[in-house]
Amino acid sequence: MAQYSRIEVARVMKESGMVPLFYHPDIELGKNILQACYHGGARLMEFTARGDFAFEVFTELNKFAIKNLPGMIMGVGSITDAAAASYYMQIGANFIVTPSFREDIAIVCNRRKVLWSPGCGSLTEINKAEELGCEIVKLFPGDLYGPGFVKAIKGPQPWTSVMPTGGVSTDEANLKAWFDAGVTCVGMGSKLISKDILANKDYAGLEALVKETLTKIKNIRA
Fold it and tell me: d(Cα 78, Cα 76) in Å, to the nearest integer?
């Protein structure tokens, strides 16, 4: 079961400003990635459940986080139906992220007071998600919409909280454009946890990059 309520998760998302996300089938490598992000200051991790037996990897990573990384909030991304959402919540997912808006996922997550962040690409989808209790909308794919889309939404709907995923990098100018547009936080995958970092098992480098990126976000929002 989830360790954190949707309100608690939303608060940490807003405070930290960044949700790292990654998938890898190697459990031990995953633990090291998770630990590096944690020591770099991250307190959220979206495990993108894309591979065969991904639930086994997430189970072990979540157990590791609960035991060794106090305050680390584990969630699951790439969820496409209510059955998968229910299963991952049963094994401890604290938030569910989806590539598209699905009402069936909203219902099962709301029933357990677990935060769900649906991928939306229009004002109509965003409004529907918020009507169903969504706290933070995922703008996906972020690179196709850009900061200008967020700024346009925030004009008539300043209450809307947005997390772009895709098209977000560790570059200060990129981060500034998104946060100046009004995003609540950003989701960051391969631009943060790169193929080179995974291949070289450069955990120290990842820790430093996470710390540096969080500092940039803090300074931009100051």
Answer: 7
The model's pLDDT over 11-62, given as tens digits with 9 standing for 90+, comes to 999 999 999 999 999 999 999 999 999 999 999 999 999 989 999 999 999 9
Query: Alpha-carbon distance 41 to 217, whole Å?
Result: 12
In the beta sheet, which residues pair with residue 116? 96
Alpha carbon distances (Å) from 55 to 39, 47, 86, 92, 158: 24, 10, 12, 11, 37
d(CA 97, CA 173): 26
Report d(CA 151, CA 101) in Å as an integer.
Answer: 21
d(CA 152, CA 161): 13
Distance CA 25, CA 19 (A): 20
pLDDT tens sequence across 42-52: 999 999 999 89
| pTM (2 d.p.) | 0.97
Which residue, 126, 180, 120, is CA-closest to 151? 180
pLDDT in tens, 101-158: 999 999 999 999 999 999 999 999 999 999 999 999 999 999 999 999 999 999 999 9
With helix as H, strand as E and coil as C, how does 140-163 read? Answer: CCHHHHHHHHHHHHHCCCCCCCEE
Cis bond leading into 141, ω under 30°?
Answer: yes
Residue among 209, 176, 172 at smallest CA distance from 190: 209
* 120 closest CA partner among 152, 98, 147: 98
